[in-house]
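Sanity check

After download, print the first record. It should look like this:
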Amino acid sequence: MKKFSHILLFLLCLVPFASNATDPVPIIRRSIFSTSTDWEAVTGIYLSQFDVEFYVDKHLVNNGLELYFLDGFPCFAQTDSSRIWIDRNNKNDNKIRLTCLFAPKTVYFAWRNAARDASQDKTTGILECPVSFDNNLKIDLSKCTKGKDWKEYR
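Expected structure tokens:
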């Protein structure tokens, strides 16, 4: 019982107290949760896994292109493979692997130009890319369309 009261006392010490009751500090709590659905159960279609192959457009890639897959029906990215960095010679540091109900015709990425060793940072905007399919999903970056920059959405 003594050990329990020590733990309770310790936990109470972690609770922040307002120094002035007349000027309460607003606490903003945001809830970020997944809206994922069991697509197999809802559609009756089995999920498949696809690797994404990229073909480089040297104008778009510049000194390096960092892409983050934006989940959207009929696909979502695997946790460890939703980001890739690609250079002008089509060398990369990862792969993008998607789980899909069927091969999509178009996919979207958040993108930015960055050198290989640049830390992950804010992306520029949306990149819309048509997809061809032959066992894997193939994306020719020269056929992608730059969408709005993030600041244009405000």
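If your output differs, re-run the checksum step. Summary of this record's structure: The first helix runs from residue 2 to 14.
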